[in-house]
Known about the structure:
Elements: H1 18-22, H2 24-42, E1 53-58, H3 67-80, E2 86-91, H4 98-105, E3 121-126, E4 140-146, H5 170-194, E5 195-208, H6 223-236, H7 242-246, E6 255-256, H8 257-265, H9 270-273, E7 276-286, H10 289-297, H11 300-322, H12 329-349, E8 358-367
Parallel strand pairs: 1-2, 1-4, 2-3, 4-5, 5-6
Antiparallel strand pairs: 5-8, 7-8
Amino acid sequence: xxxxxxxxxxxxxxxxxxxxxxxxxxxxxxxxxxxxxxxxxxxxxxxxxxxxxxxxxxxxxxxxxxxxxxxxxxxxxxxxxxxxxxxxxxxxxxxxxxxxxxxxxxxxxxxxxxxxxxxxxxxxxxxxxxxxxxxxxxxxxxxxxxxxxxxxxxxxxxxxxxxxxxxxxxxxxxxxxxxxxxxxxxxxxxxxxxxxxxxxxxxxxxxxxxxxxxxxxxxxxxxxxxxxxxxxxxxxxxxxxxxxxxxxxxxxxxxxxxxxxxxxxxxxxxxxxxxxxxxxxxxxxxxxxxxxxxxxxxxxxxxxxxxxxxxxxxxxxxxxxxxxxxxxxxxxxxxxxxxxxxxxxxxxxxxxxxxxxxxxxxxxxxxx
Length: 368
């Protein structure tokens, strides 16, 4: 069997500053949820002591989408604890472009950063997966993660006729749901270990809302179905092999509100026993900013050119991972360019219904 590149490549966001510039909607999600985080912060005890106050952004990508929120939060911490050292830790997978994180935060790009507005502040990064312990026990005060924990630690199986679990059926769907449950509980247990008593988590997660909506499927053309259709077309015309198509599955599990909240309300659940309690839960749909702009300018070409990069910023590595490791990097890039060009052309020719609306479950959790 030809080795799939999925066995040797890891999922990551596109680097070089591409991610935050192309994912305005992800920043809108975080900025819109900032009041929720500030409300949670207002009920925390933040004494002005010598012990470091630690905040983390897990699944940070290049740090650009959360920078405004982090600055707002840390300025409030500094106001309430004028002399307390503050540690801000950005975490993501080892292949993440951490150099871009530091360039963004330290003012070497056009990102509006908080770095010069807060004294006694120390910025670090960690390449440890949030499926593992990330901090010494009891030292994390405020954990944050947005648009990240839908990624699972491993793909439980291949999906025969689709690229994402939202298109799976039967035992394949069950396998992804179960992997999502296991990884969600594992991630929460690790954060329970990291958190200080009284510490909180703000988790804004892709999921399936009460009306059955999820990312890119809110009533128009399904983004994941389009992903699958165009990838299958490359299989059918011989550009990629049947095996490469089969090996292309997003390592993601979208959870329902009930699945998100179960660990906090079931008293026999290990997460509940570890002391995590849910303070707040809600779902929101944040409209695709490129589709919103398109309603005003009506230029299909402009919409297509602006819309596809936001899909590509997070999806490209999944399609790259499905390609055979025997292909050269140049050949892989040509296939990927052709693939996303075909998506762009489809949107340009018939833009109606295309949108990547963000569907999130927003959770505030405390360790008691």
